[in-house]
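INFO batch 0412 | record 1 of 1 | parsing
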Amino acid sequence: ADTSPADDFPVEQRRLPFDEINDVHQYLLIINEGTHMTFTGSSRGFGPAAADPNIEANIPLIRAAAVAFWEATLKGDGEARKWLDQGGYAAFVASRGRVEVKPARAQ
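INFO prediction complete | emitting C-alpha cells
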C-alpha cells in the first residue's frame, strides 16, 4: 500500500486537486502498485513511504508523460497534445495504470 512521508495525507486525498480544479487542462496518472516514491525515481523508500519494487517499469511511464507534456505545452506540438488527449498515452500505459484527461471548463 502506498503511504506518504506526510503521515496525515491519505492516498484518497491526493487526487483532490485534479478533481476540484476545473479552469485548466489536466492529466492524472495513477500507476498500479506505484508508491509515493515512484515519482522521485528512487527505488528506496523514505520514512513511512514505501519503496517502489517496479521502479524500472514505472519510470518510462512518467518520462513519456513528462516529455509529451513539455513538447505539447512549451513547443506547441499538436501531435504530442493529441497523443496525450486522445488515448495514445493511455494505450502506452495500458494495464500498468490509469490515465485521466480533464479539459478545462469555463468558469
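INFO post-check: The chain has a mean pLDDT of 87.
INFO record closed
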